[in-house]
Structure formats: structure tokens, C-alpha cells
Design brief:
The complex is a heterodimer of chains A (214) and B (588). Chain A is α+β, with helices and mostly antiparallel strands. Chain A is built from five helices and eleven strands. Chain B folds into two domains: 212 residues, Rossmann fold, CATH 3.40.50; 295 residues, tm_1862 like domain (pyruvate-formate lyase- activating enzyme, Alpha-Beta Horseshoe). Chain B has a six-stranded mixed β-sheet with strand order 2-1-3-4-5-6, covered by helices on one side. In chain B, strands 13-14-15-16 form a four-stranded parallel β-sheet, with helices on one face. Chain B has a three-stranded parallel β-sheet with strand order 8-11-12, covered by helices on one side. In chain B, helix 15 links the parallel strand 14 and strand 15. The radius of gyration of chain B is 24 Å and the shape is globular. The N and C termini of chain B lie far apart (59 Å). The chains are: A alpha+beta (214), B alpha/beta (588).
């Protein structure tokens, strides 16, 4: 399995995950990457993505695993020739088997266009969103794993994967408080994490680099 | 100060499917800002509809093939974004460069369907451009229209500076170059229009004089005409996501209700070699997983077998499907069924009995309907059938014939496969008499009669297991007929309907019949005048459009229809419709 770490910037920020999946089949076909197919009545390409990113949010750390015998370097080269700069791959990994990123990723860092101090752990964070036409209010504090800063802006480590905290909902909470200096598209995912055996968060790049190769 | 585009981007997280509005699709040509002239193609429907339109991609690629000229696009935004644009003072922008429509040299609307007319106004309104050409001064771009609806441009003629009648290849580009020339020479808009009028296929409503004829533009060398081998690939799911391969233009069948079949004559086929080459290039440049072999009657294409032979290895290696839409029952073969394995097959018998099929010249026999058995042998268990209600001379017996076809197919399926799991989807449109067809003088049935016939058929189909029935709305069918055969007086009605809230009229959930009935009443226009029978000797609003097919031929076909006499397929010999005066029919 070859894994690409790719960007989601510019116009690509607005493409929904379902459309990303649709695009992937086309990208791989025009890149002429020989993807393996499942065996069965309705064969499908063996391509696996990291958990979805909210529509409108950018990312420096999306991942896609592709089952192919082609070398990771060549996969990345061909992939980059078949996508625009907004979705360019920046790293490739060669791993034995499916790293199951959708199931293993538990957290992600997001840079919010909000000044440092916008989030105070002791105050916590309440999010509001619409579900089936009704407004839902939730305490999201437990799904915020860490707070840091970058260039004077707030970076939060949010739950991702099976238990998730959507960055757009956090942004909305900040906006309601009048804390945002920018718009949702200025929010940027910086990194994603899996949970190591000792319980600490481990950057997916590091996890994939240490993954056994064929 | 933020640009309009940056301001628009900040609004996108709050609207549905924001990727509709960003541009940046794969295969978007890169153009510098230093082009001589710019054209913006406007498609008056949502992005996912417009992105599936081959015509627009052809014309877009034709202009962009020239380094010094740029074509950009704009689709109708959904109401959620339109409201935000209005409240934030953002005009309608092109996708490629985020330029307000007002700043282009030419803005061209593609009119595919009568129920999109209010969306012309919706887009002009959002762009801050006056509706009527007479209200637009020298500072506004040339606002033009083209597409199938140009066959009768009168209902919308007041909105446009020019209308391209016929095929736009070469004509749109000629208009763009003309505007550029006018700019460099300091011509007035009127001078530009005077020059535009000299271009074949260009109708200039403001300068048109009594007795003048506009001859439809026709691509003479279809084999070598522009084909977008690098089509734009949509950002969000479009209605058709596939390589659309245009095998030929025109149609040899001569169905008497079919406007496209008459309007796109003469028949011009593209060689199988060229089609295969284009298909491969387009798959490689887009990554699409399907090639759709399109034309008005795909199964009639002379090179179909050769084309499938040429593509067989390629589609297998690339995991690409071949789709064969628009098959006529008579042209369908078991081999096709095997080659284009899909979940369902679609056919259009159009009428339930042989008698009525002869009237409309749909040369499909009951024996040919049994041809579907070949698809059952190939493993198909879903069939979609398209019919029309309200065709001239139709009786309840003809409607009962639709149910009979379904029953026969069920029996055929059981006999062929021994199974009973066949599903048949019956879809019934309402007959709409369209200009430039032998039925252009016919009356449309009343709304009450539409509902009665639909209910009657629904009752009959309910009794057959595995059959589902869908039908077109009666009100929208009436409106479509009125707009199709309307005259200049309808421009005021369209404006009034838009002002009353009508837009996206082709979307059932948005169709506002009350807005239209109010508009007709406010303007003192009687809708029945446009939907009722027309005296064959009366002057028609579209008489000045010369499609090549003579009015005499249309009248003769109408008489044959009433006699129940069919006309042979043009492939069996020329029927003398007159279209070949615009170009030779070329069947390879």
C-alpha cells in the first residue's frame, strides 16, 4: 500500500468528502496509477482516505492510501501530474498492508483565525449546530485535546475519527463570541494524529514512517 | 479592499455545495490577463446541469484554443448564494477569473430549454445588467444567446443584442473577434450589430427587417470540427460525469414531434476512427470512467460496430464503461447489450400502438419491441420506457397500448429468463408542439385532458407487477408549449413572471404556476393563444428562421401523419426535406 499526504487548499477546500472520493477515481485513472481492485461481483478500486475534512476548511495533512505495486515515489510523481496545486501531494509512504487511517486517526491540529487566548480550557467550549432542522447545543470541551499557538493565532487539537469535533463548529462558536479575525476558509488543518500504545498522540507522518514496509 | 471574488469566497461556507462557485476545475485553461477579448458563457441553470452540456464545452474550448482570446463560464447560482450576493453587493462573477459579467466583451447565454427563460433575467439581474437590449448602452457587453431554443427566438428576442441560430462553432468566435475589432476601431454598438448581422446564423432583433430571413449556421466539416478532448471536469457531482462522444449530428429518423431531429439536419457523421481517438484522449485527460456515445439515435450510427471494436481493448484496460443512450428499438442488437453492460436499458417507443407510432413516424414495430428480449438474455432486468401523452390523433386505445407493451415485456422476460423480477419504469411526457416540426401547428391537449390521460394510464399500469410510472407536470408542459411557440409579446410576460418570483422553472419544486398565470394576466396575454391549434396558412413567429427544412415539407409530413403513413429513414434514401441546401448529408 502506498500512502500520499496531500494538501487541501484554495478551491479544493470547498469540495465535499463525497466529491473527493469521486474525484479520486478520476485522478488515479488519469495519473495511470495501476490501482488494485477488490474481487467480487462489483469490483471497486482499493483506495482509502483519512477522515473527512469539513467543507470550507483547508488542510496541510490529508492522507490517501492506494493499493498498487508502483513505487511510492512514482505514485506521488504521477499523482501530482494529475491534480492541481491545491491538492498537491507533499509526502509519500510505502507501507505493508492498509494502515486504516480512517479507523486509527483520533485527533487533528487546526489553526483558527482567532487570536491567542480565544480558547481557555477552564471556560470550555459550547458548540451549536443544526440537526434535522433543530438546533443542538453541546459541550465540546472534552473533545479538545490541546491548545497551542502559531503566529499569534490559536491552534486547537480536536478529536477526529470515530469521535469527532468538527472544526467548522468550533469556528462558529468562536465567531459567535466575536473572536474571529477571518472567515472559515482561513481555518487550516495542520496535522493528524493516531493514538500510540502508550496513549499519547502520534503524528500520522511518524506513524507511517515507522510502519513496516513490504 | 477585498476583491469581489475574495468576498464571495468568504460567503461560500454558508451555502450548499460551495464547490459549484469556485472554478478551478481540472482542465481549466490558463489564460493571462492580456487577451484581446473575453467571452463569458452563461448557462441559466445550476452548475451540475451546465457542466454536463457538451455544446458549451465545445464552444468554450474553441475560443480558448486561441491564445489571444479567453472564454470563461458562469452558471446560475442557487437562491442561497444569490441572496447573500445581493445583500453583500457582489455581482455575478465568472468562475475562472472572478470577473463581473459586465466587464466581458461578449456574454453568451446557452438556451437549452424553454423553462430556463426566467433564469436569463435572474442572471442578468444578479449581474446588474438591464434585461432589455434597448436599455443597455455602449458600456455593456454584447449580450447574445444560442442553443436549441434559438429555433424560435422571438419570446426572448428583446433581451438580446444577437441570437445565434443553429450551430455556434465559428459563429461565437466570429462575434468575439468582431467586438474586438469594434473596440480597436472605436465602433458604436450599432455599428458592431450591423456587422454582426452579416455573419451567417446571426439574428440581430433590433435591426431585423420585415421579410428578412436568418439562415441557420451549420458546421460543414463535422469530421474535423472542434471536439473538446480536454473537457472541464466538475468539482461537484454533475448529472453526467462521463466523456460525451458526439458520433454525429442530425437524425435520419424523422420523428414528426422531434424538434432536434429537424433542427440539426443535415446528418453529418464523424468517422469511427476519429471518434475512437477523441474518446481515448478525453478519458486520459479527464479520468472519467464512462464513455457515452451520444447522438440523437446512437444505434443508427453507421460506424458503431467499428467504433466499439476500436474501443474494446482500451475500455477493458482502463476499467471504463461504454454507455449507449438514445437507442432505437430497431437498431438495438444483442451484441450492444453485451458490450454496454449497465444496470438498465432505456428505450423510447413514444406511443403505445402501431397506429400512433405511424402517425408520429416513430418507425418502431411491435416485433422490434420484442427485440428487448436480447437484453434480457444478456442479463438485464430493468427497462426504462419513454412515452408521450397527448400526441395528435391519440385515443384511449393508444394509451392502453402502453400498458400492453409493459405486459408483453413482462411475458417476454419470464419466457426468456424463467424469472419474474423484471422492473419496467414508464415515463410519460406531455406532447409539446414545437416550432420547425411537422407538428408545429398542432394543438396541445388541455390541462384537464392531460390529467385525465395520466390518471387513466396510472390505473392501467397499477395492475401490472413491477411497473413504475412517472409523468411530467401538466402546468409546466403548458408553459413550455406557450414559450416554445410564443412571439415577441412574451418577453414582457417573462419579465413579469420573473418579477413575481418565477425562476428555475424546470425544477418541479421551484415551479411557480401562479407567478406565470398572474404574469400572463397582467400583460393581457392569453396562454391558450400559444398552445391551441394554429392555422397552417397563418404566419408563424419563427417563419423568418430558415433551418433548411422547407415549410412545404413540414406540411406534407403533417398530412402524411394524419393519413398514418410513415416516411422512410433518411439512410434508406433522401426524402427531400431541403436541409441539404445547408450542407450535404454525410453518412460514412
Amino acid at each position: 500500500m502506498k500512502v500520499l499526504k496531500y494538501l487541501r487548499l484554495g478551491n479544493a477546500r470547498f469540495v465535499s468528502h463525497i466529491d473527493v472520493l469521486r474525484q479520486a477515481a478520476r485522478i488515479l485513472r488519469r495519473a495511470e496509477i495501476p490501482v488494485k481492485y477488490s474481487q467480487g461481483f462489483n469490483p471497486h478500486a482499493l483506495v482509502f482516505f483519512s477522515p473527512p475534512c469539513s467543507v470550507g476548511v483547508g488542510s496541510l495533512a490529508e492522507y490517501v492510501a492506494i493499493d498498487t505495486d508502483m513505487s511510492a515515489e512514482e505514485v506521488m510523481e504521477r499523482y501530482n501530474a494529475a491534480v492541481g496545486a491545491d491538492m498537491r501531494a507533499v509526502k509519500s509512504f510505502d507501507v505493508a498492508g492498509n494502515p486504516n487511517l480512517a479507523g486509527r486517526i483520533v485527533a487533528a491540529d487546526y489553526l483558527f483565525p482567532c487570536p491567542v487566548g480565544s480558547y481557555a480550557a477552564e471556560k470550555g467550549l459550547r458548540i451549536e449546530f443544526s440537526k434535522k432542522g433543530e438546533t443542538v447545543c453541546e459541550d465540546a470541551t472534552e473533545r479538545i485535546f490541546g491548545v497551542s499557538e502559531k503566529d499569534g493565532l490559536t491552534v486547537l487539537t480536536l478529536a477526529a475519527g470515530n469521535v469527532t469535533l468538527r472544526a467548522d463548529r468550533v469556528f462558529d462558536a468562536f465567531r459567535r463570541e466575536g473572536l474571529c479575525a477571518g472567515a472559515l476558509p482561513d481555518t487550516l488543518k495542520l496535522a493528524q494524529y493516531v493514538r500510540a500504545e502508550n496513549g499519547v498522540l502520534r503524528d500520522v507522518d511518524d506513524y507511517l514512517s515507522s510502519f513496516p514496509t513490504v | 479592499m477585498k476583491s469581489f471574488r475574495d468576498r464571495l469566497i468568504s460567503l461560500l461556507p454558508e451555502v450548499e455545495k460551495p464547490a459549484r462557485y469556485t472554478g478551478g476545475e481540472w482542465n481549466t485553461p490558463e489564460k493571462s490577463g492580456n487577451v484581446k477579448a473575453r467571452f463569458c458563457f452563461c448557462f441559466p441553470d445550476l452548475y451540475e446541469i451546465g457542466m454536463s452540456n457538451l455544446g458549451l464545452q465545445i464552444l468554450y474550448s474553441e475560443i480558448n484554443a486561441h491564445e489571444d482570446y479567453a472564454a470563461e463560464r458562469c452558471y446560475a447560482p442557487k437562491a442561497d448564494l444569490a441572496e447573500k450576493m445581493r445583500s453583500n453587493g457582489i455581482p455575478l462573477l465568472s468562475l475562472e477569473s472572478g470577473t463581473p459579467l459586465k466587464e466581458f466583451d461578449v456574454v453568451g447565454f446557452s438556451l437549452q430549454f424553454e423553462l430556463l427563460y426566467t433564469n436569463i433575467l435572474y442572471m442578468l439581474d444578479l449581474a446588474g445588467i438591464p434585461f432589455y437590449s434597448r436599455d443597455r448602452g455602449e458600456d455593456f457587453p454584447l449580450i447574445i444567446a444560442g442553443g436549441p431554443c434559438a429555433v424560435n427566438p422571438e419570446p426572448f428576442a428583446d433581451f438580446f443584442d444577437c441570437v445565434v441560430v443553429g450551430e455556434g462553432e465559428g459563429v461565437d468566435f466570429a462575434l468575439l473577434r468582431l467586438v474586438e475589432e469594434g473596440k480597436s476601431k472605436g465602433w458604436s454598438k450599432r455599428r458592431v450589430l450591423e456587422e454582426a448581422k452579416k455573419i451567417g446564423g446571426v439574428y440581430v432583433p433590433s435591426l431585423h427587417e420585415e421579410g428578412e430571413t436568418v439562415v441557420k449556421a451549420v458546421v460543414a466539416d463535422f469530421e474535423n470540427s472542434v471536439y473538446p478532448v480536454n473537457p472541464l471536469v466538475p468539482n461537484v457531482e454533475a448529472v453526467h460525469e462521463r466523456v460525451t462522444l458526439e458520433l454525429y449530428r442530425g437524425c435520419a429518423s424523422g420523428c414528426r414531434f422531434c424538434q432536434a431531429g429537424y433542427y440539426y439536419r443535415p446528418i453529418r457523421e464523424r468517422s469511427a476512427e476519429k471518434c475512437a481517438e477523441y474518446a481515448k484522449q478525453a478519458v486520459e485527460s479527464t479520468g472519467y470512467g464512462e464513455i457515452s456515445m451520444c447522438s440523437l439515435s446512437t444505434g443508427d450510427y453507421s460506424g458503431l460496430k467499428e467504433l466499439m471494436d476500436r474501443l474494446r481493448g482500451f475500455v477493458h484496460d482502463k476499467h471504463v464503461n461504454l454507455a449507449l443512450p438514445s437507442l432505437r428499438l430497431s437498431s438495438f442488437s444483442g451484441e450492444m447489450a453485451q458490450e454496454s453492460r449497465r444496470s438498465s436499458l432505456t428505450f423510447a417507443p413514444e406511443a403505445g400502438t402501431q397506429r400512433l407510432r405511424d402517425v408520429i413516424n416513430k418507425n418502431v414495430t411491435d416485433a422490434e419491441i420484442d427485440n428487448i428480449g436480447k437484453a434480457f438474455e444478456a442479463g438485464y432486468s430493468n427497462v426504462k420506457l419513454y412515452f408521450m401523452l397527448g400526441l395528435p390523433t391519440e385515443t384511449d386505445e393508444d394509451i392502453a397500448g402502453i400498458a400492453e407493451i409493459c405486459r408483453r415485456l413482462r411475458g417476454l422476460y419470464v419466457a426468456t429468463t424463467g424469472k419474474r423480477n423484471l422492473t419496467v419504469s414508464v415515463s410519460c411526457a406531455v406532447f409539446i408542439p414545437k416550432p420547425c416540426t411537422p407538428f408545429q401547428w398542432e394543438a396541445q391537449i388541455s390541462m384537464e385532458e392531460m390529467l385525465r390521460k395520466q390518471n387513466y394510464l396510472r390505473g392501467l399500469l397499477r395492475a401490472i407487477k413491477g411497473v413504475t410510472f412517472s409523468w411530467h407536470g401538466a402546468e409546466s408542459s403548458v408553459l413550455e408549449a406557450a414559450l416554445a411557440r410564443g412571439d415577441r409579446s412574451l418577453s414582457a410576460v417573462i419579465v413579469r413572471a420573473y418579477e413575481s418570483g418565477a425562476r428555475f422553472d424546470s425544477w418541479t419544486e421551484q415551479f411557480d404556476w401562479n407567478a406565470w398565470t398572474r404574469a400572463f394576466a397582467d400583460c393581457g396575454a392569453d396562454i391558450n393563444r400559444f398552445t391551441g391549434a394554429i392555422d397552417p396558412d397563418a404566419d408563424l413567429p419563427w417563419d423568418f428562421i430558415d433551418t433548411g427544412v422547407s415549410k412545404k415539407y413540414l406540411k406534407a409530413q403533417r398530412e402524411l401523419a394524419y393519413l398514418g403513413v410513415t416516411t422512410k429513414n433518411c439512410r434508406e434514401g433522401c426524402n427531400g426535406c431541403g436541409a441539404n441546401k445547408l450542407g450535404r448529408c454525410t453518412i460514412i
